[in-house]
Amino acid sequence: MSPVQTYLSVWLAISAVALIFRYLYLLNAYPFLRSWVLGWILFSARLLMLLISSILSESRILPVMADICEIFSAVAFLDGALLFIGRPRSRYLLGASAIYCLGFAAAAWLGAGPGLRAVLSHCPPGAMLIAAGIAFSRNRKLPRAGRITVVICLIIWGLHKFDYPILNRSPTWSLWGFWITAIIAILTGLGMILLYYEYTRRELAESEEKYRRLVETTNTGYVILDAAGRVLDANAEYLRLTGRRELQDILGRSVIEWTAEKDRARNAIEVQRCLDTGMARNLEVDYVDLAGRPTPIEINATLVTSGATPVIVTLCRDIGARKRTEDSLRRAVGEKETLLRELYHRTKNNMSVIISLLNLQANESKDPAIKRGFEEARNRINAMALVHEKLYDTEDLSRIRLGDYVRDLAAYLVQSYGLGASIALDLKDMDDPPVTIDSAIPCALILNELISNSIKYAFPGGRKGSISLSVKELEDGLIEIRVADDGVGFPAGFDYRRDGGMGLQTILALAEGQLLGSLSFESGTGLTCTFRFAASLEA
What share of the chain in percent tops pLDDT 90? Predict the structure, then answer.
């Protein structure tokens, strides 16, 4: 076989090895594989340059470039060996190799003979190949078969580099040496592939062991289902949730079998939804053990389609403790609501008793001023009693609807003064915002004073008129209440802050001091009072 045929055959074989390592690197991008891929590509490039040089016999630069590729291929193999056994990449090795190659190129350019060039280009790579073999041999944790193969081949390959300058003197021995190099290189490549296979198998086994330990130690049930909802794999916690003891008791069986009868249709629907949308979230069902005891479960599932067939990865949590806590809290809240309703009801009844006593006392008195004082006190207490009555009737127990309250209070006050025929109420412009009890009580007292003052003072001499009330829920979280009448208004020069009596002073104190709101009066054709406040004083 001619040198060209020899170079071509070996180049094709080594190129095939380089392509195999390139494919392995695409499967798993380990750092040591990257170095090995580079080493085989450089070694293949060396062979290609020798092939071209054998065709172009007068070329001087191609043999030098081939030798440089051989040096760097050995560096790459040594670097990959160090990375494979867990050693850091040596920058000094790379730097020294680069400097050596520059020196080698300079020596070749200055006319170094073939013998010296053979020594300079083969002995350092041989030493690095032997060093790579020794590095593999010192690491006993590596898989045995692949490690021994690679160690023997690398050391023989490295030793062969030292005899190559001698064999290179004879064309016949040079070709034989080349064939020896090719065979050793191919065996080294096969050993590296075997080592890689054993390494990845061990990595996979360790990963599966870590996964199994993680899954088995968690307190969350883990199960993998096929598209029909049959169990493919599960952990011990999931077995406990189903009430079974052995994995074989549930493998290949549908989860519907241990789902409570009332939840089976919904569970089947969620399995199909997971297949259609890729997930199912926060599904609550009951699992039933062999004795018929239910266990409440929360299920979250995700469809995984990376393999040949889609599977459903499901996490199941025992929510029995949470359910018991929720039931306990629900009972406690129910008891609290009952107590609050009873408190509001008793408060309203006690205030009704006080109102009745005030009515009796007012009827006993002959003094109109004293009787009027009793009536005003009765109306104030009734305004607060009406708040507790509304709280008792509402589901919230902490808020009342203000518009509904204003309608009832205004109707009561007009009726209590016996002026229903002469005074008309305009309640059309009425929102119904919720207000908390801490705002509702002072608001009730303010409304009582404003409406009472309009009834008593706006229409002297029994003249007819109207009182309009409006409630607005503003965008800034405030509530605006407006009480207006078409009566006589304030007297000329009257300053409500300076000249107002007990009723006006009460209004100011409640609106500005307790509700932290704003209040203003406009007197002209009648009197209009506008005040704004927050629906809740909690903030």
Answer: 11
